[in-house]
Write a structure and sequence with these properties.
Blueprint: E1 18-20, H1 21-45, H2 49-68, H3 74-83, E2 90-92, H4 93-116, H5 122-141, H6 150-153, H7 179-203
Helix pairs in contact: 1-2, 1-3, 1-5, 2-4, 4-5
């Protein structure tokens, strides 16, 4: 039983339980995609059925991670199959558990509102946005936002953070951002706003059908 109910895995060379960050990021990507698509159904079709399914499985998945063992989380198993040929990147399990407890709280709240009470409102919208931000940062950037709150509640310092962010070190030259790079970024952002201002009406025009067939299937 102790082998089943456990958080993190023992890996030679690490003195604390760890998780494979590559699997964690892949699982976050799977959940982000599922949540994002289900929210699109709400925005464009006012269809709340997909989000109810996603929330149910989301909550079950995170409860398995926190209460039983991340090894038996369905999304982490899928992630292991996807990134199984990649070299593992080990991170401390403690801070990940704390972050996933936050996920359980958020998912439980959403489960109550959407499924038990069958309601929605600003609270559910804000929580959905928070979940998407957390999942996106984890999957896209390898930044665990929930892990950042770990030091506020625990005296023990987090170990083996993704990208060695727990260790204060000097950036290498390839990691530094120059003034010219900042200028390019600022110019690009300005270009985005300028394009929206000048081209919005043009971009809103419906494209012509190159096949010459309209929506009714008739040739124009």
């Amino acid at each position: 039983m102790n082998r089943i109910i456990k958080f993190g895995e023992n890996v030679k060379g690490y003195d604390i339980p760890v998780l494979n960050e590559r699997e964690v990021r892949a699982a976050a990507g799977i959940l982000f995609l599922a949540t994002f698509i289900s929210l699109m159904y709400i925005l464009f079709n006012e269809n709340f059925v997909p989000i109810k399914y996603v929330l149910t499985f989301f909550l079950i998945d995170f409860l398995i991670r926190v209460i039983i063992n991340p090894k038996y989380s369905p999304t982490l198993i899928m992630a292991r199959l996807i990134v199984g040929n990649q070299t593992p990147e080990y991170v401390g399990a403690a801070q990940k558990k704390f972050a996933w407890i936050i996920g359980v709280v958020l998912a439980s709240t959403m489960f109550y509102y959407f499924i038990i009470a069958n309601t929605y409102g600003p609270v559910t919208g804000i929580i959905c946005l928070i979940c998407l931000i957390f999942l996106f940062f984890e999957s896209a950037f390898g930044i665990c936002l929930g892990c950042m709150f770990y030091p506020l509640f625990f005296k023990d310092k987090a170990e083996y953070c993704p990208g060695e962010t727990c260790v204060i070190k000097q950036k290498q030259d390839i990691q530094k951002t120059t003034g010219s790079q900042f200028f390019v970024l600022l110019a690009f952002v300005s270009l985005v706003f300028l394009t929206v201002f000048l081209m919005n009406d043009r971009f809103r025009e419906k494209p012509r059908d190159l096949t010459g067939i309209n929506n009714t299937g008739q040739i124009k």
